[in-house]
């Protein structure tokens, strides 16, 4: 099933269950949060970052790192690691963000690093997620999207 095939069923659910956009409840916003997180995992806004050490250090893997060593972190690759996300790591599956109890799964920042990790992670993460959910909700509510046949879509980094 393609992402385009998922959109009409999501839209139908929204339109039949809610009279207007104001009536959307917490459960619906959780559905959009799962979609946003899955999108950010597969297509992070910053595909990679680099850091330099200020002092010699030892990584959790046991590797020694000298002072001023530059390390590249690929958030794009991290969102596609089979060891973390499973055999279906390349598939768009928002349901991977919901637990068996129906709750949102909160991933540690070393697994889901779209907003960075550690003490220097993005302080605007929560407001950014709220804004993305609201924009996605408004787009789904106000527009009908369809895939144009024979027109491949591929992401580009800036």
Write the layout of secondary structure elements.
Elements: H1 3-17, H2 26-42, E1 48-52, E2 57-58, E3 64-65, E4 70-74, H3 75-78, H4 82-85, H5 125-142
Antiparallel strand pairs: 1-4, 2-3
Helix pairs in contact: 2-5
Describe this structure in words.
One of its GO terms (biological process) is lipid metabolic process. This protein has 158 residues and is mainly alpha-helical. The chain has a domain at 3-43 and 86-142. The chain contains five helices and four strands, in the order ααββββααα. Helix 2 crosses helix 5 (125-142). The two termini are 29 Å apart. The model has no long low-confidence stretch (mean pLDDT 82).
Radius of gyration: 19 Å
Q: In this structure, how is the largest beta sheet organized?
A: 2 strands, antiparallel
Mean pLDDT equals: 82
End-to-end gap: 29 Å
Q: How many beta-strand elements?
A: 4
The coarse silhouette is elongated
Secondary structural class: mainly alpha
Low-confidence stretches: none
- Number of DSSP helical runs: 5
Helical residues, percent: 25-40%
User: Strand order of the main beta sheet, please?
Assistant: 1-4
The H/E string reads HHEEEEHHH
Q: How big a fraction of the residues is strand?
A: 5-15%
Cofactor: heme
InterPro entries: Cyt_P450, Cyt_P450_CS, Cyt_P450_sf
Keywords: Heme, Iron, Metal-binding, Monooxygenase, Oxidoreductase
Family: Belongs to the cytochrome P450 family.
